[in-house]
Amino acid sequence: MNLIQHFVNGKIIPGKSDRRGKVFNPAIGEQESEVILGSKSDLDNAVEVAKKAFDTWSLKPPIQRARIMFKFKELIEKNSDELTKMIVSEHGKVYEDAKGSLIRGLEVVEFTCGIPQVLKGEFTENVGTDIDSWSIRQPLGVCAGITPFNFPAMVPMWMFPMAIACGNTFVLKPSEKDPSISIKLAELFQEAGLPDGVFNVINGDKEVVDAILINKDIKAVSFVGSTPIAKYIYENAAKNEKRVQALGGAKNHCVVMPDCDLNQAVNGLMGAAYGSAGERCMAQSVAVAVGNIGDNLVKELSKKVEALKVGPGMDKKSEMGPLVTKEHLEKVKGYVDLGVKEGAKLIVDGRNLKLQGYEKGYYIGGCLFDHVKKDMRIYKEEIFGPVLSVVRAKNFEEATQLINDHEFGNGTSIYTRDGDVGRTFASKIKIGMVGINIPIPVPVAFHSFGGWKRSLFGDQHMHGIEGVRFYTKLKTITSRWPSGIRSDPEFIMPTMK
Ligand code: NAD
């Protein structure tokens, strides 16, 4: 059986732990690999290596770091088919969707190719007479990333290319459910010319995460995953004096206004709710039907949900693949059972889907609920599967109130033809990423990604300029070169005369 190990100091190594995790191919429901679940000493060893590498990497001129990023970009493009297949085989999403997610990660690498430009500081001549002042951003040291299963390439690539281009070194702890691609990315980065020890991958579970949180040499932690774990990371990383950004779960609402182009809204919702089998933190899991549009919306959606082509990710005809694990499949089915018990109307029931030849795969068909109410658990909690809930709202104000009252604040969108409604929505809504007639408003690499409320703990969003700020600290220097005349001591607070 294939064994997935760690990547430390430019080499694949087994480490010291004898604990193992199982990695499945969800399309066929069979174990394909074993992953080593690292120990505290494996993590500490990787941090030691990264700390040494920081001494020289942080001094490398940004232009030289950028050249390595350019080469890394080229290698990702050259190997994109193999990388995409790795995502499909361990996560399950369909090939083109997996490729799209890889490209969104690649775009962050492209952003870092311009790192000399964004690392430029600020300079003021004569902040006082003959006194100059300038600000520079310097790297932090060893940074760590802890990532979820649903984007095994893209989410790590929100973090490590940014941190490394800014002059830091990095230790990544990928999801234990689909860890292979992180090792491959580390190999490609090394082939691009990255010095040994700058990027390291330690596979594992809670044991490695807890070791990250207490390691004194880790200066910053980036986390993406579910909200309870995000909160745990935020609190414990901060307690141990680290900089931290911890992105959590979501329940994204798509408001469908009565004046919208219904066809566009339905197609947008289909991709946003059922793409990647709903296993996206930016999936639209609630459609808020405003005014009298509800019946037509549900009628049009139900036809399309029933016609969804579910199948293995490598089959070109598949629109939606399996869920990631058997446990997750049971959890999602459990939520559909719960919705029925809570009194929501199940319009399309995907629970009994069977695929000939793939009977052991973790498949569920698309599910559609109507008349979901705000006190139901299927409305309040993140399901993370292909289950769309339609909630009816009397008017725009009621729709926005629902969204603003929800504990999560990741993404939202609105379908309307009224510019005033769209603008008011963007201005008043308490959500980090907003779409107007755009179903999944994921910001591109040169903007920044992040939610509000319990979808993000910390101050900075990921990648773009926010990422540069997170992975660097500011230093401001004030300087004077007196020309011969010595001044007397001054005992008052200096002001710039
Ligand atoms: P998860 O929280 O279970 O796991 C995320 C990471 O935390 C993994 O590396 C895992 O090994 C580690 N982990 C899990 N349990 C832990 C524990 N008790 N102690 C310490 N570490 C632990 O999340 P997941 O199931 O892998 O991913 C799905 C979740 O991620 C969803 O909630 C989704 O919304 C969220 N997500 C959010 C974003 C975002 O940008 N906000 C993006 C992608 C995914």
Describe this structure as you would to a colleague:
With 497 residues, the protein is an alpha/beta fold. The chain has helices at 40-57, 62-78, 80-91, 95-112, 115-118, 154-165, 180-191, 206-214, 227-239, 262-274, 294-306, 326-342, 377-380, 396-405, 419-428, 464-470; strands spanning 2-4, 6-8, 11-13, 20-25, 30-36, 122-128, 131-139, 142-146, 169-173, 199-201, 218-224, 243-247, 252-256, 284-290, 345-348, 367-370, 387-393, 408-409, 411-415, 433-436, 452-453, 456-457, 472-480. The strands form 6 sheets. It has a 7-stranded mixed sheet, sandwiched between helices. It has a 6-stranded mixed sheet with strand order 10-9-8-11-12-22, sandwiched between helices. A 3-stranded mixed sheet has the order 1-5-4, covered by helices on one side. The longest helix has 18 residues, at 40-57. Helix 2 packs across helix 7 (180-191), helix 3 (80-91) packs across helix 4 (95-112) and helix 4 packs parallel to helix 6 (154-165). Residues 146-151, 155, 173, 175-176, 205-206, 209, 224-226, 229, 247-250, 281, 382, 384, 410, 451, 455 line the site of nicotinamide-adenine-dinucleotide (NAD).
The strand count comes to 23
**Total DSSP helices:** 16
Ends apart, CA distance between termini: 74 Å
Shape: globular
| Rg, alpha carbons | 25 Å
CATH architecture of the largest domain: 3-Layer(aba) Sandwich
Unreliable stretches covering 5 or more consecutive residues: none
Structural classification: alpha/beta
Main sheet summary: 7 strands, mixed
Overall pLDDT: 97
What strand order characterises the main sheet? Answer: 15-16-17-14-13-19-20
What level of helicity do the residues show? 25-40%
